[in-house]
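Just curious. Protein, please.
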Amino acid sequence: MSPLIKIKDVRHAYETASGPLPVLDGLDVTVQEGGFCAVVGPSGCGKSTLTRLVAGLMHPDAGEVWLHGDLVKAPRSTVGMAFQNPVLLEWRTILQNVTLPLEIVPDGLKGAAAKERARYLLSLVGLDGFEDKRPSELSGGMRQRASLCRALVHQPEVLILDEPFGALDAFTREDLWQTMHQVKESEPFTAVLITHDLREALFLGDQVVVLSGRPARTQYVMDIPQTTRPTLDDLYTAEAAERLATLRHQIEIAQGRAAPEEAS
């Protein structure tokens, strides 16, 4: 595999009433084509800023962001995004919500082809028969599944997931983790997941990037080989426990609650 996303020495600060607030400082992240990169770090360290830079919604003060060998200078239609709040439009059916990006993306599928693509994705995530429902008629987990379909309907090469499961209960969240693996096997995309859940990062990612405290840099990278689709039982193995302990310690370092030299 070759790198699809490459973030090189990125620095960024937000302007505030009291002066610039640095959030990223020399950040380096590489995600291989077809990879699933989970990004974790202390609250407010700049994780969501990273996703906006990859999507071209923001420009770094310094450094470069590359997608497929092209320097990111503007928003890209090849990026799909899903957030913690599904933000579905109540006056549209679920099917119409899913096809919305195809009305916006240039050269997107139209008409019957757009509906067929949307129905395929809804079926893939277990929402058969709910195409004509309104968002208020669906549970939180079902709305999040629809949001995932909407992010994928235009077949993006990069899928950005900004804490999409954070507001769900534990059982629904774990169910959606398994759905994500099922979708990943059927849809060719490279994913960047922002999460505060270390178990989620381990279960979904083949790479976990730990960001330092603000201003963030790449503090630690864990590679997780995945040859078969994982099961929830895999989170309770000795190997998973060791990886989880390592990530927890790295978060403690990033929060300033442990010294870097104590890291194993």
